[in-house]
């Protein structure tokens, strides 16, 4: 099994293309071999520096609904539905016409992901879109699904670099993600060796803007583990039972009792 840091040099270009994007297009592997993996990563982290092919720009620009704001979309595709109230055939026709919004949103995403050179931006757009879980089949979301991606997701894909390590041995990943510029790393200390993880957290949290958030510490864990958390750590207390769905405790007293020792240690 390949571990962090021991990947053969000849495999790194393909690995980078697969992990930072949707895999290589013709010519991508040759270019990354030529310029080097480090330069490719720096380019992907600065998508505005990567020119978009004119043909792709023209094809995306032709998707009219992607360039309409929410008010324009409502006026063009929802008002006709409302005005046709009482006429089932007219309402059905208006709703079918509005399906172009979702169709163009999907087409735009696929075009950019397949033909676009800003691969990391596309991966992050898909990630955050999925993370916020906006469902096109729910209410009026079908009207604004494309505008939501254009205005609320795409402009912000290169901001705060948050890494959520929900795995049993996150300590082996802390330093590589810190070196990659992660602004925040969240771990679940209940999943592994707490002492080792929190010691690594203290070491990795040294840069001023980096925060390590040991997430999901169950009440049964002793608070002496706090000695390993640096003063820059962000502590998150979850008031739902781990792996339980909306199973809230009777009150907030338990969370307050768990947090009280932190207040003293973190001063």
Structure characterization notes:
The chain is built from 12 helices and 3 strands; from the N terminus they run αααααααααβαβαβα. With 267 residues, it is mostly helical. The chain has 3 domains: 1-44, no CATH class; 48-156; 162-265, TIM Barrel, CATH 3.20.20. Strands 1-2-3 form a 3-stranded parallel β-sheet, with helices on one face. Helix 11 (194-204) links the parallel strand 2 and strand 3. Helix 5 runs antiparallel to helix 9. The two termini are 43 Å apart. Residues 204-232 have low confidence and may be disordered.
The biggest beta sheet reads: 3 strands, parallel
Terminal CA distance: 43 Å
Class of secondary structure makeup: mainly alpha
Strand order of the largest sheet: 1-2-3
Q: Which range does the strand content fall in?
A: 5-15%
Unreliable residue stretches: 204-232
Number of strands: 3
Secondary-structure element string = HHHHHHHHHEHEHEH
Query: How many alpha or pi helices?
Result: 12
Shape label: globular
Helix content: 40-55%
Q: What is the radius of gyration computed over CA atoms, rounded to a whole number of angstroms?
A: 24 Å
Number of domains: 3
- Nearest-integer average pLDDT: 76
Structural topology:
Layout (H helix, E strand, L loop, with lengths): L11 H9 L7 H8 L1 H8 L9 H8 L8 H8 L1 H5 L4 H28 L3 H14 L8 H13 L8 E4 L5 H9 L4 E5 L5 H11 L6 E5 L37 H13 L2
Helix pairs in contact: 1-3, 5-9, 7-9, 10-11
Question: Briefly, what is this?
Answer:
This protein is mainly alpha-helical and 267 residues long.
Question: Which features would summarize this protein structure in a list?
Answer:
three-stranded parallel sheet, mainly alpha, 267 residues, 3 domains, TIM Barrel
